[in-house]
């Protein structure tokens, strides 16, 4: 075989991964083009409340008569933005802190990692709640809160990776050629830790979607009337006995996205981990 | 003034069990363009010494002095040390499989070093890199610059490592077990290449190895290390003709040689190296030495001239020094073992 991208060869082997990828692409298209696909303005009251699905309103209308489909499509974009920005915050700051801690060891390591331990001591949602209490509710603050909450795990992962990498011969060899700290970090450490960090990021994306839904459910994330999945569940559950679809539809959307992200994360890990690859590949 | 003047070098690691002195009281000098072999088994401190010279073991406490081109490397600030590494002193490591960065092309790794130390432009550095690969005998250097390390064989990779070491025309190259990870058939080629290139460029070369055979044809002088100390020091010819320290005898007897009776079995050195966390009080080789006497247990011998080869040979052994209560090995032929 030529030097094919390991992710794509991994992909070829598993129909579950293929299916997950197709669904993920659909989600992404919806996130990108949702506002153009959506039949109605998601914030406008169009008809009677809590109508059943019909030709006019495919998924029915919500508790005050807005189109559920349009709200769901708009919500996808919000979920994506929150997940990506929050995970990005966690990845960038976490990786940076972990890198510094491992690279400089000593005091830097102790201070950074104890700080991370303190953050870790809070359950994820509670920490997000605390941060939002300080910053105030809203989409932007929700992203920051979720992102900050994920920094410690990223930092710990990065630190572990870098500590292992620092003992590699090529790092020592690079030093012996006169490479400085920045060069060592940028060219000889970070690229090797990236694979692991990316895999963890996919898991974190799924978690961020969930946390955002949770925050919106509690009314601390995306503010009404802006549509968000968590918010839709929150209002929908009041009508669970009469119109269960109102909560079930956004719930299914969340579940689907998280499921897909986790499967893709697993495949990515298998693709990037040469040991896994060797084990799972049949001898040819 | 010698190029490299190591005086009373020591390297100590703090461990949970106490201080571990990996290198102790090592002194030697090297002139420009000369070659020095450092021989010893695993744990004898030879690699730690090389890394100390490079300033690459931050976890060790270093003592003594490493004079190089008028500076004491042990007291140089980091920034200046970094400019020396790779440009004035370069190092070639044991395992060429892992010493190159697997995600960067060989060309990029070469040009980086060149640009880092010389400030050459990209095309200049590329031309120089190509020339270096040609010098170390890699066919089609221009095309190979674009290849990644995994596309090279072990021997070729070690040639790339040599090219990297030579990139900025250093005056001193430290070669740490460079043939250990290579096929036997390639070892001689790589050694000969390094030897030729350093002779051509008048580069001083320190060859660190556990293999006396590597030292034999390729070095001017030899240090034999044991338990972190130098136990024997002489010119290479002198060492092979008149080895004086029982440890060196052991090394020679355990090595197959063309000029010996090959029907006799090779004799291994029994026992294990000393525990450097708690080194024995007297001679460190005592427990494994079949010539040891009482004095060896009570007092540690100094590195001093051999009684019968003064001026040519330094040994750390009571048996071959002419001092009170010592000297019983003077004139012994170690190839015919005597029961001491």
Question: What does this entry look like structurally?
Answer:
Chain A: Belongs to the binding-protein-dependent transport system permease family. Chain A: It is found in: Cell membrane. Chain A: The chain crosses the membrane at residues 20-38, 78-104, 116-136, 189-210, 245-264. The complex is a heterodimer of chains A (284) and B (340). Chain A has 284 residues and is an all-alpha fold. Chain A has a single domain (6-280), classed as MetI-like (MetI-like fold). Chain A is 74% helix and 0% strand. In chain A, helix 2 packs across helix 10 (245-272). With 340 residues, chain B is of the alpha/beta class. Chain B has two domains: 31-41 and 81-223, P-loop containing nucleotide triphosphate hydrolases (Rossmann fold); 242-340, no CATH class. Chain B has twelve helices and twelve strands. Chain B has helices at 46-54, 78-84, 96-99, 106-118, 122-135, 141-144, 154-166, 184-201, 212-218, 236-241, 246-253, 294-298; strands at 4-15, 18-30, 35-39, 60-68, 71-72, 89-92, 172-176, 204-209, 221-226, 229-235, 304-305, 313-315. In chain B, the strands form two sheets. In chain B, strands 6-7-8-3-9-10-12-11 form an eight-stranded mixed sheet, sandwiched between helices. Chain B has a four-stranded antiparallel sheet with strand order 2-1-4-5. In chain B, strand 4 and strand 5 (71-72) form a beta hairpin. In chain B, helix 4 (106-118) crosses helix 5 (122-135) and helix 5 (122-135) packs across helix 7 (154-166). The model of chain B is unreliable at 336-340 (pLDDT under 50). Classes of the chains: A mainly alpha (284), B alpha/beta (340). The interface between A and B is medium-sized, with 17 and 27 residues.
């Amino acid at each position: 075989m030529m030097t094919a991208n390991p992710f794509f060869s991994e992909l070829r082997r598993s129909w579950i991964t293929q299916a997950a990828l197709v669904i993920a692409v659909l989600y992404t298209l919806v996130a990108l083009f949702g506002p153009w696909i959506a039949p109605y303005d998601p914030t406008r009251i169009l008809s009677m409340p809590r109508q059943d699905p019909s030709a006019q309103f495919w998924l029915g209308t919500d508790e005050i008569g807005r189109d559920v489909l349009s709200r769901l499509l708009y919500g996808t974009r919000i979920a994506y933005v929150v997940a990506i920005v929050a995970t990005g915050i966690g990845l960038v700051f976490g990786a940076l802190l972990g890198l510094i801690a491992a690279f400089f060891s000593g005091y830097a390591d102790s201070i950074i990692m104890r700080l991370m331990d303190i953050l870790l001591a809070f359950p994820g949602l509670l920490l997000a709640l605390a941060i939002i209490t300080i910053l105030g509710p809203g989409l932007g603050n929700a992203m920051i809160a979720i992102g900050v909450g994920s920094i410690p795990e990223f930092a710990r992962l990065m630190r572990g990776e870098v500590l292992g990498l620092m003992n590699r011969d090529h790092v020592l060899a690079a030093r012996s050629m006169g490479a400085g700290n920045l060069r060592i970090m940028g060219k000889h450490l970070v690229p090797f830790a990236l694979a692991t960090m990316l895999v963890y990021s996919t898991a974190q994306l799924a978690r961020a979607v969930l946390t955002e839904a949770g925050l919106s459910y509690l009314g601390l994330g995306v503010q009404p009337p802006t549509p968000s999945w968590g918010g839709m569940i929150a209002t929908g559950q009041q009508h669970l006995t009469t119109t269960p679809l109102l909560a079930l539809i956004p719930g299914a959307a969340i579940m689907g996205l998280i499921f897909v992200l986790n499967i893709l994360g697993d495949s990515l890990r298998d693709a990037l981990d040469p040991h896994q690859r060797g084990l799972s590949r049949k001898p040819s | 003034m010698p190029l490299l003047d190591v005086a009373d070098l020591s390297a100590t690691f703090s461990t949970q069990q106490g201080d571990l002195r990996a290198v102790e009281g090592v002194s030697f000098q090297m002139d420009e363009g000369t070659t020095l072999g450092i021989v010893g088994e695993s744990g004898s401190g030879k690699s730690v010494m090389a890394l100390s010279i490079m300033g690459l073991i931050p976890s060790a406490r270093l003592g003594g002095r490493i004079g190089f081109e008028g500076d004491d490397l042990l007291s140089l600030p980091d920034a200046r040390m970094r400019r020396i590494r790779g440009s004035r002193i370069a190092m070639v490591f044991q395992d060429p499989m892992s010493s190159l960065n697997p995600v960067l092309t060989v060309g990029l790794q070469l040009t980086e070093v060149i640009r880092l130390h010389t400030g050459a432009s990209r095309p200049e550095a590329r031309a120089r890199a190509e020339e270096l690969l040609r010098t170390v005998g890699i066919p089609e250097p221009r095309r190979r610059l674009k290849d990644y390390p995994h596309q090279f064989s072990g021997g070729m990779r070690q040639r790339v490592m040599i090219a990297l070491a030579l990139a900025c025309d250093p005056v001193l190259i430290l070669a740490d077990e460079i043939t250990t990870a290579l096929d036997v058939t390639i070892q001689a080629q790589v050694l000969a290449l390094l030897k030729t290139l350093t002779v051509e460029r008048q580069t001083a070369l320190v060859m660190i190895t556990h293999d006396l055979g590597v030292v034999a044809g390729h070095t001017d002088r030899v240090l034999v290390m044991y338990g972190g100390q130098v136990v024997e020091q002489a010119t290479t010819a002198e060492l092979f003709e008149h080895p004086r320290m029982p440890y060196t005898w052991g090394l020679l007897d355990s090595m197959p040689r063309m000029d010996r009776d090959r029907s006799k079995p090779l004799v291994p050195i029994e026992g294990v190296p000393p525990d450097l966390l708690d080194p024995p009080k007297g001679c460190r080789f005592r427990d494994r030495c079949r010539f040891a006497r009482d004095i060896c247990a009570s007092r540690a011998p100094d590195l001093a001239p051999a009684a019968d080869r003064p001026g040519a040979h330094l040994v750390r052994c009571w048996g071959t020094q002419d001092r009170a209560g010592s000297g019983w090995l003077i004139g012994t032929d170690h190839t015919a073992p005597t029961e001491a």
